[in-house]
Amino acid sequence: MFSGSIPALVTPFAADGAFAEDAYRELVEWQITEGSAGLVPVGTTGEAATLTADEHFYAVRVCVEQTNRRVPVLAGAGSNDTRVAIANVHAAKAAGADAALMVPPYYNRPSQEGIFRHFEAIAHETPLPIVLYNVPGRTVTDIQPATMVRIVKAFPDVFIGVKDATGSLGRATEQRLGCGPDFVQLSGNDETALAFNAMGGVGCISVTANVAPRLCAEFQAAWAAGDHGTALALHDRLYPLHVAMFTDASPGPVKYALGKIKPDWPLHLRLPMTEPNDASRAAVDAAMATAGL
Asked: Which of 58, 93, 153, 163 is an active site residue?
């Protein structure tokens, strides 16, 4: 269901903090026109942590409506409360999402057994397929490869893939060998997406694709076609931008960059997220020039 360049969409906010629906619809339309292969609304880059539950799933519904089934929608739906996570996946289904993206429980730091039991409970209740999202740098909870294999083997029709943001490239091999070749592995880190694909990945859930959707789509398409020289050249062209996206707290830099391309869009941040600092802005400016944006 998922492969190629899949942007983790920013969420546009007006100056007063309100969800800017018109701009969001324009963002979705632009992403599809530029070649993105799927969309992830209200994930980390979409500032999901600052949204109410009603706002969260309204944004998913808007994304689904605007997409109109042209590409699949993978909705952020995780929680550190198992009961809330189950409710979230039902809400994602009601909003029209094709699948749910779910982190392991954060903050409460369960054991590997607790992680398995969390996803086991969700598996018994979910109306949607689930892509696991392993991002220990944010959750402080790591789905170890053996636990991931255990989850997938127990519920192969539910857990269809992973967004791997561990930064450990060897995991792509461990997870493929344990979960099988049909288990979809998507990089959660733009800067290592080339190497991740070489290790068995099939795409990237991308921050940079918010700003350079066509280049990111062309990069993934070149790799999939076996044109590794073109893929490497595009990787090199985009690499400074990948790095610049995290020179200050995300999504500050990516919203700043997107604002330079779409200056009429309301791309304010909700506290506690703040505008990127001067050094970050300079890095973004230089990287956009390198990328030809």
From this structure: 163
